[in-house]
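User: Predict the complex.
Assistant: Input components as received:
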Amino acid sequence: MTEKNKTTIYDVAKMAGVSKQTVSRVLNNRQDVSSETRTRVKKIMDELSYHPSAIAQSLSRQKSYLFGVVTAGLRFIGPSRTLSGITSKAEELGYGLLLKELASFSSNNVKPLLQWFKSHQVDGIIWAAPEIEDNRYWLKDLMPDLDIPVLFLTMEENNQVTIVTTDNLGGARVATEHLIRQGRKHIGHIAGPLEWWEARQRKLGWETALKEAGMQVSEQMWTLGNWSPKSGRSAFLELLAKYPEMDAVFVGNDQMALSVLLSSQEIGKRIPQDLSVVGFDGIPDSEFYCPPLTTLYQNQDELGRVAVAELASQIEHKINDNIIVEPKYITIQPELIIRQSS
Amino acid sequence: MTEKNKTTIYDVAKMAGVSKQTVSRVLNNRQDVSSETRTRVKKIMDELSYHPSAIAQSLSRQKSYLFGVVTAGLRFIGPSRTLSGITSKAEELGYGLLLKELASFSSNNVKPLLQWFKSHQVDGIIWAAPEIEDNRYWLKDLMPDLDIPVLFLTMEENNQVTIVTTDNLGGARVATEHLIRQGRKHIGHIAGPLEWWEARQRKLGWETALKEAGMQVSEQMWTLGNWSPKSGRSAFLELLAKYPEMDAVFVGNDQMALSVLLSSQEIGKRIPQDLSVVGFDGIPDSEFYCPPLTTLYQNQDELGRVAVAELASQIEHKINDNIIVEPKYITIQPELIIRQSS
DNA sequence: GTGAAAGCGCTAACAC
DNA sequence: GTGTTAGCGCTTTCAC
């Protein structure tokens, strides 16, 4: 860390009067080094403040201790929480992260991206961008050729790859059942954009709960938003117009729910007396909406952590036992947080 | 991308009947290759679906086209927006990102972190974690030894390093002046934790504006929060108790302002009639608070983009002209967004 | 226990 | 224009 020409393993070897290999052995904590040689070499390393070149090690070992991470929409709170979980767990396990953010959610050319990761020798890839439209089309085309383990977040079960996801459908059911238990008879839904798998799942969970309770589901009972607060407002007004008897609404995410609360107040609907509202996500602010929002908290940090742990474990297995782990489908249950909006 | 044993430059050379160097030349778009050789080699590359190993290139070139990024608090919206700006600009400029998130804001052992980046041959480092307490202590100790350009975000001017930051002081002044112009006479402040440089700057901006307007500033006129909505509530109640005549408040960030709005409503203070409120950050939700919040929008995405652009430019200069660029202090002005809370 | 030689996949410097 | 020879900094045989 001092000289311009950084010290290499060779410098250490020369100073210690041993060969590079011996230094390498010390570096990797091999047992076949006499303890006196080891201490001497270590001392020299300290003196020279020597640190091995990770890049040379990667090239030589054909292993980088790096994961590739693909994310999208970092400007939103969800993806960044997931990324936070990924970074913390990776740090714990001694892996570094090579990060790429997709310019748009509907990723088109994934091939160069995978190639880039591959050329950097990443040990595994975490695909943390949401499933939208057909942006998983490449899975069956490109995956077979790619000899790097890939783990996906937030997508439909698929027997080819390991997936870690929040149980969106289950969560939506819990939300809707909660409203039903409260005695609500006309429960509407504001969905996220249905190109998103998550939005479809949440809508499906709402439908399922209603049907199981013997209640009708019809087109007039739901509308479409695009996750944003602004869209929540118009979606809500539209929904209210076509479903005036609505006395409760399950909203696809907290941000849209926020403007449902606001809009209700404007038009004189009291919450929760006239209208019960439940959101999804459990973003921190939701506790401070007026009124505080009942919502399904999804632990995205944990999502990221589980993903990294699982990927690391698969890689260890592959190296140590040469076992290729079967694809898994791991779901994380969101948690209903009941507040004053319901 | 097909065979298990990936194809190397050597395979291409053999098939094309040329030497590795020629292939390398084609790879790097050198001019000293006959166009027929070039096309032939390119064709072979395609057929073999050959892609160079970035890691081998890095080792050989002593340049990785990678930036190290240090962030903290990704679970908050601010840092992740900045990161988003960083990723998008890096992508544009052809740089990859090696990401590390500090476990806590008050980073302690930065030395191993810098060492890790260095061992991965990053071309530059962007330090995007906020300045808190003395967590810049290492700057003068470690920087001289580190022969990698480092660019800092969000910190006090310093003639040793390049810094890109939002003008927190200026923004706070603008906010306060806005309240003064509205005829408010008793303008309080809820500060963020003063270990944070940003919090201190915002408080200073508030003080400066008041003094310039010939108004008094005293201890009873401000309190402390910790950025969170929860803390905003108690800080607000405390402040109101010791400064009952307060008719306006500049709040250190939007999240705390959110619960100021809520708490005011609870105690029957009308906004903006009885109390004007201005926040800082301009998070998307602030438009949908009740009432919508006047705030200073800081473009954190742009912050990240500027940082990457500047760092890349410094590196280019260093390589091409061997000029070491003078440290710069680049500030980005936040923008006052006037809404109904003031 | 330790060292010599070869190799990871590529580029730089120099020859022809 | 193109090939040869040395590396980049480390690990992995395989001797001794």
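The first helix of chain B runs from residue 9 to 16.
Let me know if you want any component modeled separately.
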